[in-house]
Design brief:
Elements (H helix, E strand, L loop, with lengths): L9 E2 L3 E4 L6 H7 L4 H6 L8 H14 L6 E7 L5 E11 L4 E8 L8 H17 L3 E7 L3 H9 L3 E12 L2 E11 H6 L3
Parallel strand pairs: 5-6
Antiparallel strand pairs: 1-2, 2-3, 3-4, 4-5, 6-8, 7-8
Helix pairs in contact: 1-3
Length: 188
């Protein structure tokens, strides 16, 4: 049985994962949400104005009232900057699984932040919410995300061929998953 608790703050060695706040808008625009390259990596729209970001934040913040809604701002402890986001979505209450997504501004890539955030969200999902399975995917060619997924010990499940049509070509979507028993066995 799932024990939903909503988006709770999580601290790691270098990060704070917390609910989004309206004051995150400038960091979001500066570091990732207006960057076409970052947003295309996880098929999200590009936001270029404070008004667009406020509308998005309205949706996030309103959704925090639901106990089965999980979306965190990733904040670098040292600087206090909101450097990205991580979320659990496609929550399936009947079958006890969900999918994870994450995005970081390119300035914060290759520092281990995404891996650190994913690992703590895995712990939250398996040990607090009691999910049985967590899945994750990446677009073909997204080596950085594939690296995060491998470091977190997900198991490759398969490829959805020609899943995305972008820039006049088809791109595969690669799927991975982790079961709670695998997480317990390989706990970080």
């Amino acid at each position: 049985m799932l024990k939903h608790s909503g988006t709770q703050a999580i601290n790691t060695e270098r990060l704070i994962l917390r609910q989004f706040q309206y004051t995150d808008d400038n960091n979001m625009l500066s570091f990732w949400i207006s960057d076409p390259e970052i947003q295309s990596l996880y098929s999200e729209p590009i936001y270029t104005t404070k008004e667009e970001v406020k509308e998005l934040l309205d949706k996030y913040i309103d959704s925090y009232q639901r106990t089965d809604y999980y979306r965190w701002a990733i904040v670098e402890k040292e600087s206090g900057i909101c450097i990205g986001q991580i979320a659990i979505f496609l929550v399936d209450n009947k079958n006890h699984f969900c999918e994870i997504e994450y995005a970081l501004g390119s300035k914060f890539h290759r520092k281990g932040y995404a891996t650190e955030a994913v690992k703590c969200v895995l712990d939250f999902c398996f040990n607090k919410v009691n999910f049985h399975k967590i899945q994750v995917c990446h677009k073909e060619g997204n080596a950085a995300s594939q690296g995060v997924i491998r470091k977190c010990n997900f198991t490759y499940e398969g490829t959805l061929r020609d899943f995305f049509y972008m820039d006049e070509k088809y791109i595969d979507r690669l799927y991975y998953s982790m079961l709670k028993e695998e997480y317990i066995k390989n706990e970080f």
